[in-house]
Design goal:
By secondary structure, this protein is an alpha/beta fold. It is built from seven helices and ten strands. The strands form two sheets. The protein has a six-stranded parallel β-sheet, with helices on both faces. The chain has a four-stranded mixed β-sheet with strand order 4-3-6-5. Strand 9, helix 7 and strand 10 (187-189) form a beta-alpha-beta unit. Helix 1 packs across helix 7. The longest helix has 16 residues, at 162-177. The protein is globular.
Length: 193
């Protein structure tokens, strides 16, 4: 039975995937859900570890078969969360689109949303450019609208320093595991440079 589902989202180039990988290595009992995408695999990525990389036809079959609890078309590609990934034991971290996070948070009472905000559009753009994404323009064009969505999330992390950001999200996860120690309401976490 799943514990808390941590929905980790932010604009492309915010560092959310790298941050989630670090959290999973550091926190016992935290598992990364493997989501599905139609985007091309980047160098160093492995299907079944980073994502389940599928064709558009396979993705649509998964949608029609009810295999995805949430799906989104963004950056000119499809992304989705398989239902089976939410059946994992313990706490689950999902790197997810901004809209996907807001949808799942409404559906699941055990979900907490964490928005990773890059230091600036320029820093996010540089990360996206370094990946040599074929859909780089789509990703950069959505930055502003995605950044504005931060106000709808339970927690916001300004990713100025990677290890400070990891520690801030760790604090959120550990506090969630001890709910009596946490005040209710929305928490804004700002990290000084």
């Amino acid at each position: 039975m799943a514990g808390t589902i941590f929905l980790i989202a932010g604009p492309s180039g915010s560092g959310k995937t790298t941050l989630t990988q670090a959290l999973v290595r550091r926190i016992t009992g935290l598992t990364k859900a493997i989501t599905v995408t139609t985007r091309q695999m980047r160098p160093g990525e492995v299907t079944g570890i980073d994502y389940h990389f599928v064709s558009t036809e396979e993705f649509r079959e998964m949608q029609q078969g009810g295999e995805l609890i949430e799906s989104d078309f963004i950056y000119n590609e499809y992304y989705g969360v398989p239902r089976a990934e939410l059946d994992l034991a313990g706490d689950i971290a999902i790197v997810i689109t901004v809209d996907g996070a807001l949808t799942l948070r409404r559906q699941r009472t055990n979900a907490k949303s964490i928005f990773i905000l890059p230091a600036s559009l320029e820093s996010a753009s540089a990360r996206v450019a370094a990946r040599r994404c074929p859909n780089e323009d789509f990703r950069i064009a959505r930055y502003e609208s995605e950044a504005l969505a931060a106000r709808h999330f339970d927690h916001v992390i300004l990713n100025l320093d990677f290890m400070q950001s990891v520690h801030q999200v760790e604090t959120i996860i550990f506090a969630q595991r001890r709910p009596c120690a946490v005040s209710s309401g929305r928490n804004q976490v700002r990290i000084a440079g």
